[in-house]
């Protein structure tokens, strides 16, 4: 069975789900969680942090998502394309959402990250989720 991934409703935990178990990771730690592929299988570990001066891995621009009572985010993994999808709604009471993945003020959006090319660090920082893609 292929692993899958999800976020808790309160956006404080990430869950890695495999055949018969669910592994919870705390997103409120300083370093958060790192997501990537290991032998083609989706994997997650508690992050050790990133020393940008010493690391050969250069981060992309972080994706920062504000957490609010009317927002909800989730993750999904597509095995065939090896893509991590970050799906969000920042106004769940709106009846006709504006859909634009390039507009951070849009009420619904989708970010796609290739796990063949990147690993992803995700953490909760204050009232935001910070997602940082890094070169593999």
Instruction: Give the helix/strand class.
Output: mainly beta
Largest sheet: 5 strands, antiparallel
Radius of gyration, in Å, reads 15 Å
Distance between the termini: 24 Å
Q: How many β-strand stretches?
A: 11
Strand percentage lies at over 45%
Number of helices in the DSSP assignment: 0
**Which word captures the global form?**
globular
Low-confidence stretches: none
- Side by side, the strands of the main sheet go 5-4-10-11-6
Helix content: under 10%
Q: Topology as H/E string?
A: EEEEEEEEEEE
Give a brief description.
The chain is mainly β and 136 residues long.
Secondary structure: elements and pairs:
Elements: E1 4-7, E2 13-17, E3 22-26, E4 33-38, E5 41-46, E6 63-66, E7 72-78, E8 83-89, E9 108-114, E10 118-125, E11 128-135
């Amino acid at each position: 069975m292929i692993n899958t991934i999800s976020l808790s409703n309160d956006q404080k935990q990430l869950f890695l789900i495999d055949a018969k178990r669910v592994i919870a990771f705390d997103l409120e730690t300083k370093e958060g969680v790192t997501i990537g592929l290991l032998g083609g299988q989706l994997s997650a570990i508690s992050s050790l942090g990133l020393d940008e001066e010493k690391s050969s891995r250069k981060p992309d621009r972080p994706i920062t998502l504000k957490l609010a009572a009317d927002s909800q985010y989730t993750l999904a993994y597509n095995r065939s394309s090896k893509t991590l999808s970050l799906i969000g709604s920042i106004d769940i009471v709106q009846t006709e959402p504006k859909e634009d993945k390039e507009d951070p003020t849009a009420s619904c959006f989708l970010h796609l990250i290739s796990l063949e090319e990147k690993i992803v660090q995700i953490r909760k920082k204050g009232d935001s989720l910070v997602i940082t893609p890094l070169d593999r």
